Amino acid sequence: MTQDTTRSLPGPRSSTAFGVTSRGSLARLGRSSGEERGDFARAPRGDRVVSDHSSRPGARQETLRESNLLLLTEEIFSAVEPLSRADLAMRTGMTRSTVSRLVDDLLAAGIIREGSPAVGGGSRGRPAVPLHPARATLAGLGVEISVDFMAARALDLTGETLAEEIIDGDFRGSDPSEVLPRAGAMALRVAQQATARGARVVGTVLALPGLIGADEHSLVLAPNLGWRGVDVVPLLVGEHRDAFGGFIHAANEAKLAALAVAQELAAADQQEQTFLYVSAQMGIGAAVVIDSVVDVGQHGWAGEIGHISVEPEGPQCGCGALGCLETYAGKRSLLAAAGMERSATAQDLVERSQRDDDAGRTACEAIDRAGWALGVALAGAMNLLDVHDIVLGGVYGPLADMLRPRIEKELNSRVLSAQWSTFRVRTASAQSAPAASGGALRAMRCVVDAPLQWVPQPA
């Protein structure tokens, strides 16, 4: 039986928007390098059947319209500054009349909205009307189940949070047949709140801390939850399938969190991001991000850095192997090494480490050992991947200033290219449940990938 409490949350707040990323990066929002192989696959296109237009005689005009709508959508969503119809015509080479018709389609679909006409500038003719992603019309739903909380968040096309809920609890060794329906009930409440604000939920992505099956419906293994071989989607949605949108997928929690972080950093730096994301809750998850695209590997299982052995004869990990990174730098191991209860927080650990007594010194030694283990594992990843930016998330955020010196020491001594490279170890924002945001962002890909499927059809 799990114990939990519902956390009181503030009202809707802005999140990283599709439109504030650097130009060109939006087209890959929610995708991965394995997508064309079916891994971390693109969400189905809306709730209508999509056929291969190119194989049907006489369908060339519709195919061209679909391609042009996709092009305009990507231009609008990836622009740093809002574009007008005239801007789109100039960028794409389409005629103004064609752009105008297609923009009308996107307006009718609730994908974009018109801003206030620009005034001044000395140009002749009608004032330019800027085009923006639409607000509270379509929404993606992200659901996250972690070891010590579950969360659901609905985002619209601007990235604004329309509704969210987080429930604290202890889900280690839990029964998925109990936990997943409760997470589904929470997600249903969030979906209903988003709908009450005028949005239509297009789809749902469930984030789990483990290996996800190729069907994106099943969990292969989540060691820290104690789950194995679970068909998670039916348990999540129950009898309320329609409320979750046109599709429901499961994906790895760390990869979805990395997606949210990539968008956040791209917005801040105004350029695409390449980094190795490492996050700790009870276990340790990671994801490789190349030019703002999450690389998931051939089977979608890349990034399990927590189960890299940093000491072959080290303590036994929950996965059965010896000396895994998690046994040194996972939250549970960190707290145990510091002599603290497993219910303690990262901030509690920071505060104890500042004490001038034996308890403080023990805490500092535990953090230093975790930094050593992280440095060893990350050095191996850097030698293999040639990625020199590291972003720390989860429990590592509050500990970053204490972990960084030992991580960098190990990188400088173990990475072959160290003398010609610059390493950067930084932290993600303190946003709670980033994988829920990543799930919602990925769900929204179906709109940007196939805008025609959302355009109202003639009666």
From TrEMBL:
Biased composition (Polar residues): 1-19
Organism: Nesterenkonia sandarakina
Top-level lineage group: Bacteria
GO MF assignments: DNA-binding transcription factor activity; kinase activity
Bias kind Low complexity: ranges: 22-32
Transferase recorded as keyword: yes
Name of the protein this chain belongs to: Putative NBD/HSP70 family sugar kinase
Family membership noted in the UniProt record: Belongs to the ROK (NagC/XylR) family.
Protein keywords: Kinase, Transferase
